[in-house]
Amino acid sequence: MNRLPTVPSAPSPHTPSVGTQLRDWRQRRRLSQLDLALDTDVSARHLSFIETGRSMPSRDMLIRLAERLDIPLRERNTLLMAAGHAPVYAERPLADPGMASAQRAVSLILQGHMPYPAIAVDSHWNLLQANPIAQALMGSVDASLLQGRVNVLRVSLHPKGFGGQIVNMADWRAHLLARLHQQIEASGDPVLSALLDELRDYPIPSQDTDASHSADDDLGGVAVPLRLRTPFGVLSFISTTTVFGTPVDITLSELALETFFPADEATQQALQTLAASL
Prior knowledge:
Elements: H1 18-28, H2 33-40, H3 44-51, H4 59-68, H5 73-82, H6 100-112, E1 118-121, E2 127-130, H7 132-137, H8 152-157, H9 169-187, H10 190-200, H11 209-212, E3 226-230, E4 233-243, H12 250-253, E5 256-262, H13 265-277
Antiparallel strand pairs: 1-2, 1-5, 3-4, 4-5
């Protein structure tokens, strides 16, 4: 029997009106009513009426406005329901049979990245999958951080995680917090805001200035490396992020693949040796 994809439940009585939500997203994108109206072929007067609650937008108009405002799919459903329309975007777990192709693509990328670490995370940085080399590196993390839903940013910066093992902790911490802040600016996600507050409160371990900075750290100014102290020596990585193009499912729209590459020859050789032992 085919299973229908799940859709979000009706909005709560405390959900902001569709006009309030639209105005918040427009202001977050730093667009005037006139700018948005011109970009979406809607009259500025009609847009003003929608934002003030004097007019209710059609489904097609809301979708057009949401696309221009680059509103995440989950929030687009919330917007549609606030206007009395049915949600458009389904949400299925990655293990759902209907997501088999996507799950296969994720597994192929993670396994194909061996002998280098790669992980899949959701929009809140919770770990969904990890390839064997990434799992091996997480073996040094305190078990308390690996219980239940594992948050990779928490694991990265927590003193019982990689926090005490990252050689260039100040630079890497600043990089992660700036990246999270940008994500919050774009999404307005309260869960990410709470996570940012938590991460900022973590103590920063003291570091040897000479050890925490290396001539290789700037990588020509193109990336911030992660220099991790491990039983296999100090490993140096640069990372890239991969997302699905034009997803129409919430799970896929929120999924990201973080892949790490060796930033020097010593790291490359160490990872090859480690992978051969797994």
